Amino acid sequence: xxxLLNGIFLxxxxxxxxxxFTLVFGVLDRLNLAHSAVFSASAFVGIELxxxxxxxxxxxxxxxxxxxxxxGLVIERVAFRPLKGRHDAHFAGLISSIALGxxxxxxxxxxxxxxxxxxxxxxxxxxxxxxxxxxxxxxQLVIVVVAFALMVGLTLMVSRSRLGRGxxxxxxxxxxxxxxxxxxxxxxALTFALSTALGGVAGVLFALNVNSAQIxxxxxxxxxxLAVIIVGGLGSLPGAMLGGLLVGLAEVFAVTxxxxxxxxxxxxxxxxxxxxxxxQGIFGARQVREI
Amino acid sequence: MxxxxxxxASTITFMALTGVFxxxxxxxxxxxxxxxxxxxxxxxxxxTSSLVVPAAPLFGVIPRLVVGIAVGMAVGAALxxxxxxxxxxxxGVFLAIATLAFGEVVRILLINQSWTGGAQGLSFPKLVGIxxxxxxxxxxxxxxxxxxxxxxxxxLAAIRExxxxxxxxxxxxxxxxxxxFVTSGAVAGLYGVLLAYFVRFADxxxxxxxxxxxxxxxxxVGGTTLFIGPLLGSTFLTWLxxxxxxxxxxxxxxxxxxxxLLLLLVILFLPGGLxxxxxxxxxxxxxxxxxxxxxxxxxxPGTPIASLxxxxxxxxxxHAVRDVDLDIAAGxxxxxxxxxxxxxxxxxxxxxxxxxxxxxxxxxxGIPLGSGVPAHRIALAGVSRxxxxxxxxxxxxxxxxxxxxxxxxxxxxxxRRMVLLPSxxxxxxxxxxxxxxxxxxxxxxxxxxxxxxxxxxGDQRRLEIARALAAHPTLLILDEPAAGMNxxxxxxxxxLIRALAEDGVTVLLIEHNVRMVLETCTRVVVLDFGExxxxxxxxxxxxxxxxxxxxxxxxxxxxxxA
Lengths: 291, 562
Description:
The complex is a heterodimer of chains A (291) and B (562). Chain A is an all-alpha fold. Chain A contains 11 helices and 2 strands; from the N terminus they run ααααββααααααα. Helix content of chain A is 73%, strand content 3%. Chain B is an alpha/beta fold. Chain B has a 6-stranded mixed β-sheet with strand order 8-9-10-5-11-12, with helices on both faces. Chain B has a 4-stranded antiparallel β-sheet with strand order 4-3-6-7. The radius of gyration of chain B is 28 Å and the shape is elongated.
């Protein structure tokens, strides 16, 4: 039971990271590899806000949401929009986002130094709760609640709101969407902003969960994020949620029953078998080939 | 000079090693595939070599490093092959992520082995210095240089540009993709061995995701369409930090920042990578191209070419083609007409092997149709086609497009090119002669050097025909070749098609321009709702009331010029 809960805590963060990742892929067919840099940057900035200005977590999270979103706007404007219409936009987008991500991380190092950072010890209530024989902290409960609230909110927004309709139209066919009066550039930018806003919040929650943040924290979750979105189906929001939980649970159980050194084999083994058995993922739509 | 070599010995060696690693990415990127398994393959090669490299030269003559390299490359190639078997059907991002996962699994497996030293790593003897590293790089670069102009190199470029069109030109896409995969694995293994015996230490964790990304970045920055690209990429990325240090930029964060910035600028403003800065070397002007080679004669008029019996195709309940019988004999120009959605394109996709029929039987140029028959086999047997949506290899020149078309009638030249045999050159000239003859036939000889993507719409249509003709096809399928042409151009096309038929090429022509079909074809088949509703000579078809009702009546108003 304890393992199950731990898996859910970890998995919900993976899911939150991955849902932003997959949103951009689903709508724009691009993989944004600077997503993990936003994750790291937000964790550092979040710690700074709490440690220096003594803000509570409820104030910090919305600020980080906006901060992550702003970084997303920058990423879209600098690394993706100039590539529009280029035949190699796929490769080029991967590389340009890697480059921009590296620049973010360099700036992060300039601002905060290369060392591991932590939240101040008394920043959050330390109470422990007990549920069905498992112990967890209030903080962990907060993590799960925030992660799920954001994910459900995003899913509702995509399926209900005007912006969500625009996103789905652009995903289907950007030209047709433009003809129908959808401002494709604006929808694209907002998609990026939302995506990285969630990635930023995921970064703070992750730092809270393990109470530490390193500059390199993004690259390990990037791999997990890729695993998650493939397992769930590229572009599928519910798939990313479920995939995140699955990978989180698989990891926690692998550590308990197989040994920590094999933890990542489980996640990638899962990813590999999904790719071979069902490349579209658990929830992904079938890819149609045209002749 | 000696001082420079001494003070920068390590950088100079790393430059060569980075170049070798970048070539392992180039090997797959040139075929349009994105693989990230190379770091894992490199470490597998390095660690395996540590098991077999002897303490003294093998048999007293074979240097220890050569043994290590042979083993490392074999391991890299073998693992790449094993990985390729299941993942070869994946494309794009899926392929990248699957190979990335494979690389990570290799890393974790190696960490958990005792013979690799686990996370502590393993010491290696120092066997690699500047000469060894640069010799290896020179050999690899030479390989890719000679690959570029060979038939194999063109086939890989064609797959990168348009897989489906490559298939329709008789290129076995799966086999070629596997070749590039295995090549990449071997080069990655080479890199692993060189690196380990240069730095005298290896740790599985050093071959992770970020290593793979570095290799990819090097290859892409250099450029993935010219063999010199990886070399340029490694020069740029190896010397950038040195340059920054030389001008006194030392702060820990500035270097990665500037590197990232430059990388961003290169990728945004130099789409072809650094190799795009190199002026295009023009192939020697072909004032007197060789005459087209003698090719085997086409079947005598009247020989059965295609024979379909009750062919059906359903897409989830929609009957695109139902119970169609169709016979085509050598020398015919068969027109296939019908309203939009009548199943014309589905039918020619079946005939050319791109789509397996759901039912019925058929034979095309001696090959039975069915789900187990890959399209390239039918193409190799002599069926060549154009596409309704133009599918050219856009970044290749018009001439190279047609050379890819000549894949079927040319011979592999790579190995002979490696040893500079004159016979390879003769074969290349034969293929060039064949390609030029086709360009001349459609009237594009003066535009041979232009990238196909830059040609006008009508020229692109004609180039597609030239490409299809270069295969010396028994059966030529033209899917709406006159779409978007005016009446003068359509008439010229009609003259060309009849000239082809006189040369013995059998033609299956799909067209909406009914007037053109009637004036070109010897026989016309009319499809409606997936069924043949009429067939016969043009004069009969033009009078058939069912045809007029189903098609001509409605079409007439639009097709007639104002």
